[in-house]
Amino acid sequence: MNKIPLLGKTLNELTTIVTDLGMPSYTGKQLAEWIYRKRVVTIDAMTNISAKNRTLLQEQYEVGRTQAVDQQVSIDGTIKYLFKTHKNQFIESVFIPEDDRNTLCISSQVGCKMNCLFCMTGKQGFSAQLETHEILNQYYSIPESEQLTNIVFMGMGEPLDNLDHVLKALEIMTSDYGPAWSPRRITVSTIGIIPNMKTFLEKSNCHLAVSMNTPFEDERLKLMPIQKTYPIHNLLKELQNYDFSKQRRLSFEYIMFNGLNDTMRHAVEMVKLLKGLPCRVNLIRYHAIPGIDLKSSDEAKMIVFRDYLTNNNITTTIRKSRGEDIFAACGMLSSSKLV
User: How many Å apart are CA 246 and CA 268, to the nearest integer?
Assistant: First the structure.
């Protein structure tokens, strides 16, 4: 019998589990403490729970932590981890060390349904939603876990297409009984599934990053099929209903393609489109993937683009590429060869 993972259960769920087994309700809080704060990997390690109750738990349950099955280290220090899911599929997560921060890029799906032209995960196709414990396992099971300062849901998959499990993972990560992460240290990316984005904004205080890539609707449709269902203008109209003027941050991801979306015409339209919306723009160099005839803008064009937006009161940065040599950079994650 496959045992049920306790990792990924909320405090209320853990309390229900132990009371259903005839244990005191406070045992649920003990479980949460051992799993999320003390980071144990076995039920036997929970020494303030009686041996009898530990045995009872082990009949049906396990902690549910699994180690990475492989890792690759980039020349810049980035580490890409490969995890096996409970359905015997694979996902990738990326640890990105920097001078002032350590970031983990987490996956939310095996593959992706969205089929963006420039994304290797999209070319893999969609295989499965990750369950809450598989999302959290990426955080708990890397050696650098306790050194992390930031978490981004920008790995494989569209996070808001797996909304329930992502929201539950965020609830646990930011809870007092969990690792108690500040929502201001977590960013969730989306290509713009509007109904799910609204739910996310109402139920979570984490930052939001929207993949834009061009301000023109016809061009965006060629790059991102989601544009047909949820046009960028509709998305921006919805975002106007939320307050991003305080601690919560709204950012737009803009991958720059040579000759396609890196002209002054695009920069001018971006300023018009984002006027009055408190946000920042992250310019990202395109990382070439097999079979796609696109090239990245050069550094000079990116600087001109950045400076125009910045001079028009839109905070804009050029994101440093990391892990390209091990296919760990933006848009390059894929485990299709292993599925």
Answer: 26
* Cα(287)–Cα(254) distance, integer angstroms: 13
- Whether residue 339 has pLDDT greater than 50: no
CA 140/CA 81 separation, integer angstroms: 12
What confidence tens digit (pLDDT) does each residue in 20-74 have?
Answer: 999 999 999 999 999 999 999 999 999 999 999 999 999 999 999 999 999 999 9
Q: Judge whether 92 counts as a catalytic residue.
A: yes
Nearest to 287 by CA among 317, 328, 318, 248: 328
Please give the structure tokens belonging to residue 289: 């993937």
Q: What is the distance in angstroms between the CA of the first residue and the CA of the last residue of the chain?
A: 24
Regarding pTM above 0.70, the answer is: yes
**Catalytic option among 112, 119, 206, 330:** 330
pLDDT digits 0-9 by tens, 156-170: 999 999 999 999 999
Share of the chain above pLDDT 90, in %: 88
Give the Cα separation of 250 and 50 in Å (integer).
47
280-285 and 250-256 beta bridge pairing = parallel
- For residue 283, which of 251, 249, 256, 307 has the smallest C-alpha distance? 256
Q: Do the beta carbons of residue 251 and residue 208 sit within 8 Å? A: yes
The pLDDT of residue 154 is above 80: yes
**What are the Cα distances from residue 255, in Å, to 78, 182, 231, 261, 281?**
20, 28, 18, 9, 10
Choose, from 33, 92, 105, 238, the residue flagged as catalytic. 92
Tell me the domain boundaries of the chain: 4-62, 70-338
Question: Can you tell me whether residue 253 is helix, strand or coil?
Answer: strand
Fold for 70-338, please state it.
Answer: TIM Barrel (3.20.20)
Whether 219 is catalytic:
no
CATH code of the domain occupying 4-62: 1.10.150.530
Contact 169, 132 (CB under 8 A): yes
Q: What are phi and psi of 45, to 5 degrees?
A: -75, -10
- Nearest-CA neighbor of 55 among 4, 13, 21? 21
- Three-state secondary structure call for residue 219: helix
